[in-house]
């Protein structure tokens, strides 16, 4: 029962699904529940794939991709996209660390953030349409599943701020829980695909997330909630790119 409560709590935090249950929150619950992030990604990916199939039946694969992207925005509330934009505005402002963190807290969208959002939307749209039509639903499922399963690797860092939502996770995750999450994600990817290239792509994504963590930590002295969102959003795009590479070379 506690596992079910943990899963529901993560769904309520990371999605905008109108769930009817109220889970009493206690300190440390989210960090302990982190092993269920792969299932959160699976739920998001599954709903996105259903939206794709609906749009595809109505008006073809292009409409299906638009439906899937819209479903993803609805489900997540653009939570991670906001983090990506803030991260790019701050880090690429060429200011000192303290000023970068101030810029990242500013609710206004800057040029760097706007460019990052545009590139991510274009990459998601064109990347999906580069794939064979029969692979599209599967990849749409795997993108959020893979990114979120590896996300605890982004949280194995110090917190760059004194307070904020990211403090619920950053620095509170153990290597053991992170590896359990990554392991569950690997099992789900292979169970759904039985494809070695997709499993390799997933493992490469895990390595990239650690490299991204070191990169951000070197600039800000730690991670923030915004950089977690940026890491997740970029992870989906990187996994999509690896899927396109595999499809191009016939490895899928």
From TrEMBL:
Name listed for the protein in its UniProt record: Adenosylcobinamide-GDP ribazoletransferase
Enzyme nomenclature, EC number: 2.7.8.26
Family named by the database record: Belongs to the CobS family.
Taxonomic source organism: Selenomonas ruminis
InterPro entries: CobS
Record pathway: Cofactor biosynthesis; adenosylcobalamin biosynthesis; adenosylcobalamin from cob(II)yrinate a,c-diamide: step 7/7
The organism's taxonomic lineage, starting at the top: Bacteria, Bacillati, Bacillota, Negativicutes, Selenomonadales
GO terms of molecular function: adenosylcobinamide-GDP ribazoletransferase activity; cobalamin 5'-phosphate synthase activity
GO biological process: cobalamin biosynthetic process
Gene Ontology cellular component annotations, sorted alphabetically: plasma membrane
Enzyme class: transferase
Spans through the membrane: 33-54, 66-88, 109-129, 135-157, 178-205
Cofactor: Mg(2+)
Primary residence: membrane
Keyword list, A-Z: Cell membrane, Cobalamin biosynthesis, Magnesium, Membrane, Transferase, Transmembrane, Transmembrane helix
Name of the gene this protein is made from: cobS
Function: Joins adenosylcobinamide-GDP and alpha-ribazole to generate adenosylcobalamin (Ado-cobalamin). Also synthesizes adenosylcobalamin 5'-phosphate from adenosylcobinamide-GDP and alpha-ribazole 5'-phosphate.
Catalytic activity: alpha-ribazole + adenosylcob(III)inamide-GDP = adenosylcob(III)alamin + GMP + H(+); alpha-ribazole 5'-phosphate + adenosylcob(III)inamide-GDP = adenosylcob(III)alamin 5'-phosphate + GMP + H(+)
